[in-house]
Amino acid sequence: MATAYAPHFIRSENVAADVTTSSSPSPVTMVQDELKKIAAYKAVEFVESGMVVGLGTGSTAKHAVDRIGELIQQGILTDIIGIPTSIKTQEQALSVNIPLSDLETHPVIDLAIDGADEVDPDLNLVKGRGGSLLREKMIEFASKRFVVIVDESKLVDHIGGSGLAMPVEVVPFCWKFTAQRLELLFEEADCVAKLRICPKTGDPFVTDNSNYTIDLYFKKSIGDLKAAGDAILRLPGVVEHGMFVDMATTVIIAGDGGVTVKNKS
Ligand SMILES: O=C(CO)[C@H](O)[C@H](O)COP(=O)(O)O
Q1: Residue 250 gets which letter from DSSP?
Q2: What interface predicted TM-score (ipTM) does this complex get?
C-alpha cells in the first residue's frame, strides 16, 4: 500500500534476537509531529480490510485514526470496525466515518494502534498521560496484535526513566488517602504522587470513566514492573495503572534517522 509518508528506509528489529537490517540517515531533522505521523502511517499499513481495529488516543494515534478514515474513504480499506479507546477518539473516528463498535460486541480485536509516553528496551510502556489509560488497557489487552507508535523522544532506559508522570486512575472517594498509600508503596523509589488538575479550570481532571488520575513521579527505579503493578492494583481505591507490561507486540519508532520497527518475540 502506498503512503504519502512512506519513509526512505525502515530498520527492523526483533527485540529478543536484536537483528538489525538496513539504515541510512535522513537529511532532514523532522519536527516531532511529522515523526508521529510517519510512525502512525507505517502502523496503518498493518490494517487489512475486514479487521476489528482498536483506535488509540493522543496526538500520535490521532494520525492513525485520520489515515484509516482516509483509506476507508478511498475504498482501499473496507469492512473496518473501530473500537475507540476514549470519547475523544470516538468523536474523531466518527468525524472521519470509521464504523464503530465496542468491546462487548467485539471482544476480540485484530489489531490495536496507540501511542505511548515511555517505551523501554523490552517494549514495556507507560501510557495515560493523555488521560485514557483504563479504556486503552482494556482494549489493547483484548487485541491479538498491539502496535505502538512513537517518536524517538519516548524511548527510555527504564520505566519511569523520563522523570515524567506514571499515571494511576483512582476513584475520587478519599483520593488523598490513595495518593498517600501510593507514595508509601514506592517510598524506596522516592515517589511523589500528585492529583492531576485541569489547567483551564483548576479542578481535578476527570477521566471518561468519572475517575481521577494520580500522577506518580519516581526519582529512583521502581524495580520489577510486574510486582510494582500488582502492588498498585492491590490498593483499594486504585482502578488501573499506566504501566503496560508485556502488552505491545510491535513498536514503531520514528526518528531523524528513519523508522525502526521492533517486534516482541
Ligand atoms: O496514553 C495515552 C493517552 O492516554 C497516549 O497514547 C500517550 O499519552 C501518548 O500521547 P501522544 O501521542 O500525544 O504523545
Answers
A1: E
A2: 0.98
What class has domain 166-240? alpha beta
For the chain, domain boundaries: 10-156+246-263, 166-240
Going from the Cα of 131 to the center of ligand 1, the distance in angstroms, rounded, reads 8
What CATH code would you report for 10-156+246-263? Answer: 3.40.50.1360
pLDDT, tens digit (0-9, with 9 covering 90-100), for 19-42: 233 344 444 446 999 999 999 999
Which among 131, 154, 153, 106 is positioned nearest to 240, based on CA atoms? 131
For a mutational test of ligand 1's pocket, the pick from 33, 35, 59, i.e. the residue with the most ligand atoms closer than 8 A to its C-beta, is 59
The answer to whether 10-156+246-263 and 166-240 have equal CATH topology is no
Q: Nearest 5 degrees, angle CA 95-CA 44-CA 26?
A: 115
Distance 56 CA to ligand 1 centre (A): 8
Ligand 1 binding residues, C-beta < 6 A: 56-61, 114-117, 127-133, 136
Residue 136 a catalytic site member = yes
pTM for this prediction? 0.90
